[in-house]
Specification:
hydrolase; Heme Oxygenase, Chain A; single chain; 222 residues; 11 helices; mainly alpha; Aminopyrimidine aminohydrolase; binds 5-(aminomethyl)-2-methylpyrimidin-4-amine
Length: 222
């Protein structure tokens, strides 16, 4: 059996769909999301992105080949140079200063997801780590594409969240997503069914933690 990334999403289809099409995502697309929920999400996502940059640094540390090192470097660059830069700018526009960001308390959903990924990477190998990271990079790219295809999505100035959708639909982010998909497809092609079952569990867990992250934003939970 020659596995591919799509087999990971198929193995947890209900969770994957619940993540991509969460109420938070739908409200972002329609421009109807509660602004305080978005602010809460932005703050926690700042903390999330810092830990995810650390996870890509861990992927670099665990890389044994130049190709793997380059892939980890691409992921780190996508987070630090694209997302975090834009994110700090979004936060400023939404009234959250860099000083505020530096003093944020971490919500339980942020703590659970980020530490799960770091722990998976620490105890497993490079493929375990990339599979735990995949719902993040691939999921947000797919969410932007899904939103762009929905009739309820409002693009342009009428939607206060348009810049957020544009970031994940951007050529740069989509290129990072496609590079990750290519890397995963190449590595998944020769895993055994038993190994695939292990990786599917990791992917499903990380996807569920993404669902919890959206819900944390919607509920403004700490
Ligand atoms: C929680 C979460 N997941 C994914 C992404 C996209 N890197 C993000 N910014 N935040």
């Amino acid at each position: 059996m020659c596995y591919r990334f799509a087999d990971l999403t198929t193995a947890c289809q209900d969770d994957w769909t619940a993540y991509l099409q969460h109420d938070f995502v739908r409200a972002l697309g329609a421009g109807s999301l509660d602004e305080n929920a978005f602010r809460h999400y932005l703050k926690q996502d700042y903390l999330f992105l810092i830990h995810f940059a650390r996870a890509y640094a861990l992927a670099a540390y665990k890389s044994r080949t130049l190709a793997d090192l380059r892939q980890a470097h691409e992921g780190l660059k996508a987070i630090v140079d694209i997302e975090l830069d834009l994110h700090v700018g979004f936060c400023r526009e939404w009234g959250i200063s860099e000083d505020d960001l530096a003093q944020l308390p971490e919500a339980r959903a942020t703590l659970a997801y980020t530490r799960y990924v770091l722990d998976t990477g620490n105890r497993g190998d490079l493929l375990d780590l990339h599979v735990a990271l995949a719902p993040c990079l691939v999921g947000y790219g797919e969410i932007a594409n899904w939103l762009n295809a929905q009739p309820f999505t409002l693009r342009g100035e009428g939607n206060p969240y348009d810049a957020w959708i544009a970031m994940y639909a951007s050529d740069e982010f989509q290129a990072a997503m496609n590079a990750e998909l290519e890397w995963l497809n190449a590595r998944l092609a020769d895993v055994t069914p038993a190994r695939f079952a292990e990786l599917s569990t990791t992917f499903r867990d990380a996807t569920r933690l993404e669902i919890d992250f959206w819900q944390m934003g919607l509920d403004q939970a700490d």
